[in-house]
Input
Amino acid sequence: MIDLELKKRVGQMIMAGFPTSAPDEQVTRLTEDFLVGNFVLFKRNFVNSNQTGKMCEGLSRIAFEKTGLAPIISTDQEGGSTCRCSEGAALIPGAMCVSAGQGDGKWLGESCARILTSLGVNTDLAPVLDVNSDPMNPIIGVRSFGDKVETVAKYGLDELCGMQKGGLLATIKHYPGHGNVNSDSHLTLPHNDAPASELYSVDFEPFRRAIASGADALMTCHVVFKSIDPDNPATLSKRIMTGLLREEMGFDGIAMTDCIEMNAIKETYGMGEGAVRAIEAGCDMLCVSHTYEAVKQAAEAVYAALESGRLTRERIDLSYERILRVKRKYGLDKPFVFDAQAAKQLVTEPERIKKTRAINRAAITRMVGPKSKIALSNPVFLSPFALSMTRDDNPDNEPDCLAREAQKRFGGEKVIFPLGEYNEEVARQVDAAQGDVYVLGVYNARFRPTQCEVYKQLKQKNKPVIVVLMGAPYDIMYFRDADEVLCAYEYTSASIDAVLDALSEDSYSGVLPVRL
Output
């Protein structure tokens, strides 16, 4: 039988998600049934700063009353389109935008930390230290600072330093590197075939430097590194999670798994077996992002492994002590108390917003330039909606849209089309749009190539076409013959405004952080 103290220690090794914007029945069941000691938040959990602060205060109180420790409350506040909290100054530029705009990573990290901790989010699952070596990487891309070790290490460690200075538990990811694959671990199990020498000098190097600089937490990747361990993904590999991480790199902080509900683990091993293997490999905390049933499978598998002797109490104690040490360092030996006024002031502070937006503006990069400025007279603006972002000042709660905001600024016509679809109706709208210049916004066209059909149709009009890449610069491959190509690196309200300012001023200072 598993005694209460051991069950409590296993509960500290679980970080669970829930579907609502307030502590709900799932939170109650997780803490009652499995003594879950930590939570992970997604976009679904955020409404505004006041709601977030109250939610986190509730989560902290519930967990503290059950376990005697405040919970790690984490989120993926990487920046750009991966901003779970996007109100005011909380919307920060993403990694590649920061490096393209040569932003102050230390200030940005500290600002992010001050805001998140004021809301009760004490852990950021960032910065991303993946070196994006593969242009067709479907899951990292602009979430990386670039494709060079020095670029990733400089900006990544700057943000890490800033976050720690602001009292935030920063979590470097995705250890030991998710950048050199062309598949998505949410969907399948990726493999990195690079030789060990390349892995050590490229993929592993930013993590080695961050650990040497004092990183207290990391998140794994579900990727098989064939030259290191051809049989197991990093999350489940003792060679990588103990040999490389603990013994070679000297890391003694919290090693969190990426979500074990991702298909790379769930479909290959099963969540219960994956949970046990992760702990055997050396992971301290299991991230289970979505369902109660997944937590149940993971926790009960760990209990069964303890009862059978496959896992030992000493192994659980080792992770528990690491977690306890880090929680005490970051003040999680007491529950969070929300100060709504202080949080609102940080989120809405004009100077803070101005400084973050300046990075977006500095990042706008002209990749193909005209011999002379293209006048925006009688323009037509075309773009899809952004995926999830909504402007703070949008009363209709509509997703961000480059075409809509551009028409407000410059007049002319707009055409808004579905992100992943080109059909007769879209073709009809594009054909009907008549102007002297066309400005086409696209988002990651290399994975959604139907956007290229709109471009081909525009080229047939024999008028200037300006293309704005609202995602990764790798999309240039489809638009090299455009009259002008700009890159904004992300599709957010801040990047839309930055693009429109750049078009108006005909000024572009961004430095391309990848080789094309």
User: Anything to note?
Assistant: The CA atoms of residues 374 and 464 lie 8 Å apart. The chain has two domains: 11-344, 364-505.
